[in-house]
Known about the structure:
33% of the residues lie in helices and 27% in strands. It has seven helices and 13 strands. The strands form three sheets. Strands 8, 9, 10, 11, 12 and 13 form a six-stranded mixed beta sheet that branches. Strands 1-2-3-4 form a four-stranded antiparallel beta sheet, with no helix packed on it. It has a three-stranded antiparallel beta sheet with strand order 5-7-6. The two termini are 19 Å apart. Mean pLDDT is 87; it is low at 1-6.
Amino acid sequence: MNDVQIAAPVVRFGTFEVNLDSRELRKHGMRIRLEEKPFQILEMLLDRAGHVVSRKTLREKLWPDTVVGYEHGLNTAVNKLRDLLGDSARSPRFIETLPRVGYRFIAPVGQPGETAMSAKKMLLVLPFENLCGDCEQEYFVEGLTEETISQLGQLNPKKLGVIARSSAVQYKATKKSIGEIVAELHVDCVLEGSVRCNGRRVRITGQLIEARRQSNLWSATYDRDLHDALDVQTEVARQIGKALALELLPS
């Protein structure tokens, strides 16, 4: 996702700014009081933005001499950090939880003064809608969604961040509007699509929506013979990836 390591003393994400030298967190320029352990966790997550920081690493760094009780201390510190950021474990904008593994900072990270051209775009791939009327095709549709997220995530992680599947899946069959989803996840674009069936033939459609204006940036239809589900998923996901690279990544 972000694929960056923090070198500058001042780091910006969303409406927040962190000064790693003075150890201050600010929102809209206003200082927010943050205890030492939550700040240290934030610092470690920012340093490995886009990558998993394991619970073991956090324990060894922040609770090196604690054998009993560090689990409670870690959970409490992460919850305090999330509260101050206005984040949630169920619908993360900044800190994603990987159960029993660790945490990952998923928001774009940059330095003050960066231009809009240099900022990373964030993309959400909504779960493809199964219009086949056949539960047996649900595995194919879910696999197509996962493969598309994977392909898009590999395009250019420094310029295009893709919301994790674990966060995207909560919007499966959602009644929420694109505007509501964008407001929750703070993404720049949304890819949505559907799958229709006719015997062994499938028609896959996709469209890319620009979040701010909710306008259509791109759309395409792919008709395929479902002789090999994995091949179809991979091939269509790659085609979508190539098309969206032209739309979202600067040449």
